[in-house]
Amino acid sequence: MTLNSFYYDDFFNAHKLMNALPFTRKELVSAKFIGIIVFTSATMIVFMIVSSILNGGIVLLAWQWIVFSLALAMFYGALYIPLIYKLANQNLISIFLFIYVVTAILIPSILDYINEYFPNIILFFYHLPDSQLYSLLLLISVIFYLLSWRLSIKIYEEKEL
């Protein structure tokens, strides 16, 4: 939802209006990053409510699904938002499609390569308890997210409107 808002911002030249308001560019960028976490959390809550209604009882997501969903949303948001601020909107659909395809193709190949040449790394992660594995995943995603947030602020502050 947050990423879709960029399309409408560009389509209606909303950036001109937003920059005329008493908000800094840093606050505008930060709102997009906070929006990803808010919308992902809201989606999970709505999913649990609807599932509870349809199933006739309380349905709670496992904490692993919650952590994985947040980490995945943060990872993709961290990839896309700096690209959106840096590039023109016309190129983004092609770039995003390319990223999805490359990700789908490369991740299994990279994992096979690591498994073949560095099996101890795979064994290390395999023997980690779930709580540590998901904590590590969330930590890596948060670090990547924060670095991307800073980069996006820098890109948008330097951007000519």
UniProtKB/TrEMBL annotation:
TM stretches of this protein: 33-54, 60-85, 92-111, 131-149
Keyword Nucleotide-binding assigned: no
Keywords: Membrane, Transmembrane, Transmembrane helix
Domain of life: Bacteria
Record InterPro entries: ABC2_memb-like
Name listed for the protein in its UniProt record: Permease
